[in-house]
Amino acid sequence: MAHEQLLDLARTVAIDAGRLASLRRTEGIEVAATKSSPVDVVTAADREVEAFIRSVLADARPGDGFLGEESGAGDSSTGLTWVVDPIDGTVNYLYGIPHYAVSVAVVEGAPDPSTWSALAGCVYNPSTGETFTGVVGGGAFCDGESIGVAASVDLSQALIATGFAYDSDVRAQQGRIVAGLLPLVRDVRRLGTASLDLCFVAAGRCNAYFERTLSPWDHAAGALIAREAGAVVKGWGGERAGRDLVLAGHPDVIVRLEAALDTIGR
Fold first, then answer.
1. Hey, where are the domains in the chain?
2. What is d(CA 136, CA 57) in angstroms, rounded to the nearest whole number?
3. Measured between alpha carbons, how far is residue 206 from residues 71, 128, 209, 256 in Å?
């Protein structure tokens, strides 16, 4: 299947899943369980939306693999795997903050961001209706309009997005890093949805983004969209983006931001 066809499927399933998530939000949401910590919540809607996505993809592409936040992995006989976050920004979703997303990507290779090649992805925000898409070699788009990263700026003029882990010890360290970074930049935003943070970099709404402890489904689609919009997406030094660090933004800004983070301390 051509990459554009894969993108069409990703877009369709993300939008349909987002409408389901939005419907469940209007009906009332409760925490169904916690995962890595008491603040790492999952709702019944997370599970239902992922089951919906998995079913649609299995019908459309029965040989493809699957990696989802709520239901785990399924093997691939085609070399392609769908990487899905059914509701990215679950805490926002729980509290009724209109900033959450359905993230759907298809990658070639093992479901591991250190080795895979992302082919197509869609990030859909049901609250705003914005649909961010990207296909390898084909550019990045918001609602069908081409998007690109913001121009290079000095770090002192850069708006930086970030996020925090669920583990309290890691959060304390991340707070220290943000405190050290704040005097060096225009400002910092913590919006609570990694996939949309990456799309905001792609659309030029912030100059860079960094976060530690992300899972593959958090950044599979958003990282591709950011790259196709002209961003560098990487980890520390020459490493690929992954759990240790996802760093995204204009290439010049990323050089300055990584140097600052090194100075502040990881």
1. 3-146, 155-264
2. 20
3. 32, 18, 8, 15
pTM for the model stands at: 0.94
Residue type (1 letter), 192: G
Measured between alpha carbons, how far is 98 from 155 in angstroms, rounded to an integer?
Answer: 29
Q: How many helical (H) and strand (E) elements, i.e. helices and strands, does the chain have?
A: 7, 15
CATH class of domain segment(s) 3-146: alpha beta
Strands 41-43 and 246-249: unpaired
DSSP 96: T
CATH, domain range 155-264: 3.40.190.80
CA atoms within 13 A on the CB side of 100: 22
Residues 6+ positions from 145 with CB-CB distance below 8 Å: none
Question: Each residue's pLDDT tens digit in the chain (266 positions)?
Answer: 589 999 999 999 999 999 999 998 888 877 766 555 555 557 888 899 999 999 999 999 999 999 998 877 878 889 999 999 999 999 999 899 999 999 999 999 877 778 889 999 999 999 999 999 999 999 999 999 999 999 999 999 999 999 998 888 898 999 999 999 999 999 999 999 999 999 999 999 999 999 999 999 999 999 999 999 999 999 999 899 999 999 999 999 999 999 999 999 76
